[in-house]
Amino acid sequence: MRGIPASGIIMFLVIILLIELLAYLGIVQLVKTKRSRKIVSIIFWAVSLGFVSVWLSAFMNPDKIRQTTNYDFFYFVISLSVMNLFPKGLIALATIIATPFRLFRNKIYSHTILLSGILISFGMLLSIAYGISIGKTTLQIDKIDLSLDSLPEELDQLRVVQISDIHLGSFQNDKFVEETANAVNDLKPDLLVFTGDMINNYYQEMLGFENALQKMNAKYGKFAIWGNHDYGDYSNWKSKEDKAENHRIVADKIRDAGFDLLQNQSSRVAIKDTAIYIIGVENWGHKPFPQYADLELAMASVPNDAFRILLSHDPAHWEDEVRNKTSIPLTLSGHTHGGQFGFKIGGISFSPMYMIQPLWAGLYNSNKQYLYVNQGLGCVGFPGRIDMNPEITVLTLHSNTVKTN
User: Fold this and answer.
1) Mean pLDDT, the chain, as a whole number?
2) pLDDT interval class at 57 (50, 70, 90)
3) H or E element: which one contains 392?
4) Are residues 37 and 171 in the same domain?
5) Which CATH number belongs to the domain containing residue 151 in this structure?
6) This prediction's pTM
7) pLDDT tens, position by position, 64-111
8) Residue 256: partners with Cβ closer than 8 Å, 6 or more residues away
9) Phi, psi at residue 51, to the nearest 5°?
10) Which of 164, 176, 360, 389 could pair with 374 in a Cys bridge, judged by C-beta atoms 3.0 to 4.6 Å apart?
11) Could you say which of 101, 133, 165 is where a domain stops?
12) 329 closest CA partner among 210, 185, 152
């Protein structure tokens, strides 16, 4: 993990202080007696002091986070930060909104706003705790039926299972990955594709997960590509040689798990009396994300009339380099994690990730060129998922040339 500059630490501390003060002022307004206020004050500031102490300990000693292959302490700090600051931030906002009513001596409105803010913040705290403890390991299987003009009749009902963004450093043991492997196998995939980010930074994250990864099976093969985290670009290395060696070991372990690792390459897969081409490019995203993909090179040996599926980690690549510039009918991506946080209301999902990446999760269509963005399995940063569960995608492909009665 890259270090945080001193100016960033100071700015964050100022923001923390403002949130803590505003939240405290809002809470004590609802406490009537002096004795109760004293008790509330002691509890509030004891919690705040504990949080700030942990935060300072982490970021004044960045090597605890930056140069470790064990992310437990990092995730503890992030969890504590989110559970402390997000609910208090909501109370602070309620305090600001209630202040004009309090100045005009309208205590009923002021207290109603503050009490509502506290109740909602408590609900937020429970949601965060659920996302960290349960939500991040509650599998979601999404089934997509997709009709394609260019799919040969022989490939009708081809079943492609996609997983993405495992981030093995997210997990303390292989229990969840084993569960995922069993779920994948139960789906009886014809093809299994992994669309990048096996690790956060280091090959050591893969240790202990080898059997679970090997366990995943598919009738016609398993395929994988690199994600932006797989290159080790988010760590400080002693030398370029160390970084390259780490990358090489990750590649070996992915192959040892039975995946055909495509690095700006394609693979011909014979199925029945025809064939499909799986094209895999290296990571390409909007800067500052790396742009290693070479789609022209990856497609060099692919016949023009062949059915193709492109694996490209970042959906930005499809947006800028694939749709309307190629004839590739289907691209599978990951990268976004669905923001690891979202809302589902009336069957409609939304994530704040949309503000950063409009192609944040699910199926997209542009002139019959399709993109599917998988929500991923693991976590980065915040070690949880709130209403944005880890996902296995099952895409059943249908040929529009097949006649139906």
Assistant:
1) 93
2) confident
3) strand 391-399
4) no
5) 3.60.21
6) 0.92
7) 666 677 788 889 989 999 999 999 999 999 999 999 998 888 889 999
8) 210, 214
9) -65, -50
10) 164
11) 133
12) 152
